[in-house]
Amino acid sequence: MSRSLISISDLTDAEIEKILDLSKVFAEVNSREIPKVPALKGKTVATLFFENSTRTRLSFELAASRLSADVITFSVAGSSVAKGESLRDTAETIESLGADLIVMRHPSSGSVKLVSEWLRVPMVNAGDGAFQHPTQGLLDAVTLIEHFKSENNLNGVRIGIIGDVIHSRVARSNIQLMSRLGAEVVLVGPPAFLPSDISAWPVKVSYSLDEVLPELDVLYLLRIQSERFSDAVLPSLADFSSSYLLSRDRLKRARKDAVVMHPGPVIRGVEIAHEIVDSERSLIRRQVENGVPVRMAVLYWLLAANEGKLDPAW
Amino acid sequence: MSRSLISISDLTDAEIEKILDLSKVFAEVNSREIPKVPALKGKTVATLFFENSTRTRLSFELAASRLSADVITFSVAGSSVAKGESLRDTAETIESLGADLIVMRHPSSGSVKLVSEWLRVPMVNAGDGAFQHPTQGLLDAVTLIEHFKSENNLNGVRIGIIGDVIHSRVARSNIQLMSRLGAEVVLVGPPAFLPSDISAWPVKVSYSLDEVLPELDVLYLLRIQSERFSDAVLPSLADFSSSYLLSRDRLKRARKDAVVMHPGPVIRGVEIAHEIVDSERSLIRRQVENGVPVRMAVLYWLLAANEGKLDPAW
Amino acid sequence: MSRSLISISDLTDAEIEKILDLSKVFAEVNSREIPKVPALKGKTVATLFFENSTRTRLSFELAASRLSADVITFSVAGSSVAKGESLRDTAETIESLGADLIVMRHPSSGSVKLVSEWLRVPMVNAGDGAFQHPTQGLLDAVTLIEHFKSENNLNGVRIGIIGDVIHSRVARSNIQLMSRLGAEVVLVGPPAFLPSDISAWPVKVSYSLDEVLPELDVLYLLRIQSERFSDAVLPSLADFSSSYLLSRDRLKRARKDAVVMHPGPVIRGVEIAHEIVDSERSLIRRQVENGVPVRMAVLYWLLAANEGKLDPAW
To answer: Range of A103's domain?
Structure first.
């Protein structure tokens, strides 16, 4: 068992800083005419996704490829998983084939941690149930640090995380990371979408978006994870939208410099009004763009950084 | 928004000539022991197919790879499209991930044009509904120019485009391109499969294959696009076949040097007799072979040609 | 039509020895910091799988990639096969696109042989119905030769092939190869799972695992291919398991140095007890690990070895 990235809480403050710094290095690489470095030449990165997510998978695969690693995609549909193979045997097979690192997504919280204990190679959690999605947290932090032109911190930034918090792994990773970087986090949503006991969380809570709106620097809308709850939890989507949808009117009552974020995929008109997605206030496309250098940083950090290979010639 | 290839009508005569010339250059590259050039090193080509077509997708992906570009395949099944993401957000996400060019296929006519107006990167239309499939037209032209050993023209060649013209994007691209290259085009099929008003099209029309057969140099059979019409349109496939199937007997009544083409996939016995597909009269395999250099030419033309990068050292 | 690897019986003894030797060369390559050689640079290897098998497909694709070949994956789901294209036209299309070698899996015995007769490029049978899976046989032989530290032979080794022999292509390839390498092969299973006439096979047969257990050096458990027989064949899985499952108790009655093999995917508790899979007696992970160098050897042997390209500089 190697060092893996399962949760933001696995990272020391120094490691977070290291990844944020590496991410800047690789953002520069990405801006080149030939956006490639031989940093992981000869390494094989495998993706193992038990939930559909083309955007996250492609972001990791592009990151691996720009580091000159080889990529193998284990597609669960049509694999021996369908023949009854266990999670452990599937993961061990990928390791035995020669993968040097496995990026895994799975609908069960804790599953990536469990698998990482069976394997010798490092793993990256690309989302496990409602638990964690650490690279999403990191790319969101990079996007905000870039926006606020700050030095690897978010001191004093007030971030509202709005909507379906309880079912969101993105929320869990972001709450931990943003608060450690100095931000004040407010969770906003109806009671059914908020954790019942937040005493251990470094956050405030509000049931009213309209009330907290004037104080927020960042409006982070979450996707409603309707695949993770029964219909009874949220009787009416229209009710939700009337109180929590980020409409054009509502955005007018926010701070003039407040920015809008969303982890994607965006379902326009449910969590966020159509025209806001593409507006100047939106950092949504920048979040996607930052995904590749952040994942390059994480892959490099896990596979090569301790070998001291950040070649100045790159 | 960049220059894209959506329709044959986007191309000037000089641009068509340029692509035909580049295609010859890349055909030579393909015949080498190591059929690769570093022409698009560092570029990322994405394929985004909303209709199944492994052959066309692989042809584009091989073309990109032989130009040393990286390839990302956005597979719609199992993507966030299933979660309700809009076409616009899907395409913008692929662009934000870092794609330098997007090759798209979609069942709706006009959809690729629409998406290209939202994006900054060039696009190639790999087939949109019944509208256009320009690289198929180009590879068919290359195949005929090669067959007739002509100089980038098809002057005086009589081409019959036979069968389900009305639902065929291949027919639309070929009619435009072949007639601009100097060919005479005759559309042949039952009334239900022919456009009702062809006054704007540079073609003749015939309902009888047997009648026009002795005058044709090229017999271009189309696939019956049964997924694009209701059963009522064509009461009987047997009736169609008796009049329009290219049988062995019918081929005997054609010109001795007439050649047979089909865009594939071929369903033997419906549009064309089994043994003709593999005969010396058939250019069908040559069409597939020419697909790769033609797509190399198009990708290179859109991504690099105006940077003057056709290195003589290749 | 080129030389292909369809069945173990295609290979002369000298060719088997050549592949075993090449496999050792490529195992050394795989152990390097950068496990790649330019042996097949510029070649394109296509995989064409009509049955699900991510592990075998990835093993071939990794092998091709470590030889610096390009890989194209023809995925049958979502291809023109669904539009009614024939097996022949699908295979010829892949060849026309530019594949230099096709790795094919198909549920019908004999199908890969048939296709190889239509094509000009070499093929590798990655499993056809209940007929053959030659690279599995070769990687199993490599695993045993490595275990017994022998010189490309298995002289005197007693191998029990246990379970669903009749439906197993792995069994057929292994019986041929192991006995040619000098091993004594015993087939063990209930009558419904054994061939009715084995007079032409170089094997012994037993209906009782417990009876032959003390004499076996290798316990090779097969997967029950329930997709290949009707329920009537095997009335009760529980009955099967009580007599043929390799349980912990049963393993205690085997020779102290007997080893356990399985072609995967393992369904723990049906053919083999959970804890044995990961025990020191198990060669199962080693089988998977050896798959990549063995397939590198086969691809290299078919595409390059007769050109005398085994460069000592690698």
So the answer is: 8-133+288-307
